[in-house]
Amino acid sequence: MADSGSGGWEFAAGFFIGGVVGGLLGAAAALLLAPQAGEDTRAMLREKSIELKERAEDATVDARRRAEEAAELARRRMEEATGEARERTATIRESAKMMVDERIAQVKDAIEKGKEDAEKKMAEVRQSLQAESAPKSPSA
């Protein structure tokens, strides 16, 4: 199945060329079978062949121009899509960086909190050990 975005102009050009070739063959057959003098027929064939050659050249130039326009349009669309993809990638990258930085800050805060809690606990244990190891006063 032909892709409508890429093969449409090729089909149209092929169809047109087929029409031109068919027209040439029909014209040649009509001229050869027409009741005219040989010289008149040859002159008419020359004129028709020159005319059809010019039409074919015009059609070729037109098809080439359309193909170039389509290629330029495709190139511009591709550049736009690439630019949009780059912008989205930059946005995602920045968002991910911010998220990672936030997580790093949370981990650092948790580590600091853990250190503080550990120091408090160590101070409590030291006080408890000092209290246990201190001489007890005699009870009366």
In short:
With 140 residues, the protein is mainly alpha-helical.
Structure keywords:
mainly alpha; 140 residues
What this model shows, in words?
The protein is mostly helical. It has one domain (9-132). It is built from two helices and no strands. It has helices at 8-33, 38-133. The longest helix has 96 residues, at 38-133. The chain is rod-shaped, with a radius of gyration of 45 Å. The N and C termini lie far apart (109 Å). The relative contact order is 0.05. The model has no long low-confidence stretch (mean pLDDT 83).
- What is the percentage of strand-forming residues? under 5%
* Major sheet summary line: none
Rg to the nearest angstrom? 45 Å
Counted beta strands: 0
Q: Specify the number of helices.
A: 2
Distance between the termini: 109 Å
Helix content: over 70%
Q: Which of globular, elongated, flat, extended, rod-shaped describes the shape?
A: rod-shaped
- Mean residue pLDDT: 83
Total discrete domains: 1
Element-level helix/strand string: HH
Weakly predicted, low-confidence segments: none
Supply the helix-strand structural class.
mainly alpha
